[in-house]
């Protein structure tokens, strides 16, 4: 889990991170307060993945839940969090992408996004 640090990135961008219960979501970007709200108690990989995703919304000044913006946030978050991840080494150890995600410290969803992007490249 080295490489991209979404916590340091948020700090460098001047974004505030708070932990509050959120109904129906793991994270939320609140543009008018330059704040990312994270659901308390998330697994470390889920929290990192959610924070990386919400940072992309902050960078693009997204508002609301627009499907194209959600896909973009997932794609960029996956690129950042999985840059340098040795997929060949992980695949040699297991054929389960869930295991790869666990080793990379990301959610299964972001690993799937990453694998789809690689396949279409």
TrEMBL record:
Residues 10-96 form the IrrE N-terminal-like domain. Pfam families: Peptidase_M78 (PF06114). It comes from Arenivirga flava. This is IrrE N-terminal-like domain-containing protein. InterPro entries: IrrE_HExxH (IPR010359).
């Amino acid at each position: 889990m080295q490489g991209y640090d979404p916590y340091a990135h948020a700090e460098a961008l001047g974004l505030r991170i708070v932990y509050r219960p959120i109904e129906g979501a793991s994270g939320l970007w609140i543009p008018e307060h330059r704040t990312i709200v994270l659901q308390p108690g998330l697994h470390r990989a889920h929290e990192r993945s959610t924070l990386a995703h919400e940072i992309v919304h902050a960078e693009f000044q997204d508002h609301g839940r627009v499907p194209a913006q959600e896909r973009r946030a997932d794609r960029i978050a996956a690129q950042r969090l999985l840059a340098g991840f040795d997929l060949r080494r992980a695949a040699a150890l297991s054929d389960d992408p869930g295991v790869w995600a666990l080793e990379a410290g990301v959610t299964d969803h972001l690993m799937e996004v990453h694998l789809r992007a690689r396949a279409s490249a």
